[in-house]
Design brief:
By secondary structure, the chain is of the alpha+beta class. The chain contains 3 helices and 10 strands; from the N terminus they run ααββββββββββα. It is globular. About 5% of the residues have low confidence.
């Protein structure tokens, strides 16, 4: 980073301008890391569907609100993939909105059931599928009971494992 700063100072007469460009470079670097993580999670989720024998179609371009469509016994579902992060040792979370960086600032937009059917994430070797109707801005899934034994309004991760959600899609009356 120091070498880049020196080069930028030589290229531009203003140290402020060089500092601004360096900050943009750092932001681009962070975005690339996020993009790479997102791509990996997307591949893991697609692979999980495929390993269970379901066909997956990926839309052309970057204009769809969903990342892929899965064919579950002739029922097509639109899936938006989100990377998760650990909240604590017993839970993880993912964002249920899109975030775009613009010159005017950051734009956030929630997903709706008119745009997608499910969110999917991959965490600790497992794929999860969450109906969009059950999400707000974030979705937190617990891997074990809370320390205070609260059970109300708790979303246990095992209920959202891919195989269990597919079974619900295939057998909606259960």
């Amino acid at each position: 980073m120091i070498i880049i700063m020196v080069l930028l100072r030589r290229l531009f007469s203003s140290a402020g301008r060089a500092r601004d460009l360096l900050n943009r470079f750092r932001t681009m670097s962070l975005l690339m890391e996020k993009k790479q993580k997102g791509n990996l999670v997307e591949l893991q989720c697609i692979t999980a569907f495929y390993e269970l024998g379901y066909q997956v179609s990926i839309p052309y371009g970057e204009n769809s609100r969903y990342d892929f469509v899965a064919d579950i016994d002739n029922r097509l579902i639109r899936v938006q993939v989100k990377a998760s992060h650990e909240v604590d040792e017993n839970s993880f979370r993912f964002s249920c909105q899109s975030v775009k960086s613009k010159r005017s600032g950051i734009s956030r937009r929630k997903y709706t059931k008119d745009e997608i059917d499910f969110f999917s994430t991959f965490y600790n070797g497992k794929c999860y599928l969450v109906p969009v109707e059950e999400c707000s801005i974030y979705k937190t899934l617990r891997t074990s009971e809370s320390k205070n034994n609260q059970m109300q309004n708790i979303n246990f991760a095992d209920s959202y494992e891919l195989e269990k959600q597919i079974d619900k899609i295939k057998n909606p009356e259960h």
